[in-house]
From TrEMBL:
Coiled coil: none
Any one Gene Ontology cellular component term annotated for this protein: nucleus
Segments traversing the membrane: none
Protein name: Uncharacterized protein
Pfam families: IQ
Superkingdom, natural source: Eukaryota
Organism name: Citrus sinensis
UniProt similarity note: Belongs to the CAMTA family.
Keyword hit for Flavoprotein: no
GO BP terms, alphabetized: regulation of DNA-templated transcription
């Protein structure tokens, strides 16, 4: 318990994964390893820590959204290093205190999981919007991402580029309806032309079939004493492959979607670990002991930083004293020698 608490207080990552295996294709987290060894409290503690750390590590594309997101996280979700155990009173029993800590952990983990799902939905919606811009307005996905990156990296210098990009988007969006109507009319015209050309081709079909039949009977059968076109198979020709059976080009976002699905499964499993911790008194007590160790290590770190700060302040005060000015002061020298 002390090892786990100290490692997390020093910044260890609670969401690391083992190598996938046939038995565990989604890999295993430290919480899974602790649960398989019977440490329910450590498992819930690590699961909650992995949820909160994942929530803090997620970044949004827009800097304004980042600020609002961080404010909401700071108000609703606490990391394990920031949490404190419920203070004990004279009338409270240890089981009641551990139950309160466990219920607080469930609320914290649920809030973190909900916000992670919300971020995933926002990212998916942004991706869908960029794809629509690519298909309808003619803006490529890479160009849109470059505009967003330029805005986030150079908020002051890139204002001209952002304004010009916004003007171009507005121009294209204003003509979007007219362009859509034009594409619809053009599609109908193409269909009419295809029907007319097909009708003209079918009118010439019968004379062509009659002439091919005469040539086949006269030359191939009677003259050359062959089988003619009776054994002809059109499928045997080296025709171009059907584009419907061509393998579709894989998109890089498909891999991200698969990874996000696996992450969501791990989130649900981690949330289940935290909720199952409340059912076992030993797990609740173990979770409270871990919180106490983390709180103690945090207080020790803060107390070790205070004397160093005082010494620095004292050294700074000594540096501010000007010895030459004191020697030139006659009043100070007379008082000192008296």
């Amino acid at each position: 318990e002390k090892t786990v608490a100290v490692l997390l207080s020093l910044g260890a990552a609670p969401g690391l994964l083992t190598d996938p295996s046939p038995e565990f294709p989604l890999s295993r987290t430290p919480s899974d390893l602790a649960s398989s060894n019977g440490h329910k409290g450590i498992s819930g503690f690590l699961a909650e820590s992995s949820l909160t750390s994942l929530l803090l590590s997620l970044k949004m594309n827009d800097s304004a959204d980042d600020g609002a997101l961080e404010d909401s996280i700071a108000k609703a979700v606490q990391t394990v290093s920031e949490k404190t155990a419920t203070p004990a009173n004279d009338n409270d029993e240890s089981d009641v205190l551990s139950l309160k800590d466990s219920l607080t952990a469930i609320c914290n983990a649920t809030q973190a999981a909900d916000r992670i799902h919300q971020i995933f939905r926002m990212q998916s919606f942004q991706r869908k919007q960029l794809t629509e811009f690519n298909n309808e307005l003619g803006i490529s996905y890479e160009h849109a991402l470059s505009l967003v990156a330029a805005k986030s990296l150079r908020p002051v210098q890139g204002d001209g580029l952002a304004h010009s990009a916004a003007i171009q988007i507005q121009k294209k969006f204003r003509g979007w309806k007219k362009r859509k109507e034009f594409l619809l009319i053009r599609q109908r015209i193409v269909k009419i032309q295809a029907h007319v050309r097909g009708h003209q081709a079918r009118k010439k079909y019968r004379p062509i079939i009659w002439s091919v039949g005469i040539l086949e009977k006269v030359i191939l059968r009677w003259r050359r004493k062959g089988s003619g076109l009776r054994g002809f198979r059109r499928d045997a020709l080296g025709m171009n492959p059907n584009p419907q059976h061509m393998p579709l080009k894989e998109d890089d976002y498909d891999f991200l979607k698969d990874g996000r699905k696996q992450t969501e499964e791990r989130l649900q499993k981690a949330l289940g670990r935290v909720k199952s911790m409340v059912q076992y008194p030993e797990a609740r007590a173990q979770y409270r002991r871990l919180l106490t160790v983390v709180e103690g290590s945090r207080e020790t770190k803060e107390s070790n930083m205070v004397p160093n700060g005082l010494e620095d302040i004292a050294d700074g005060d000594l540096d501010l004293i000007d010895i030459d000015s004191l020697l030139d002061d006659d009043t100070f020298m007379s008082v000192a020698f008296e």
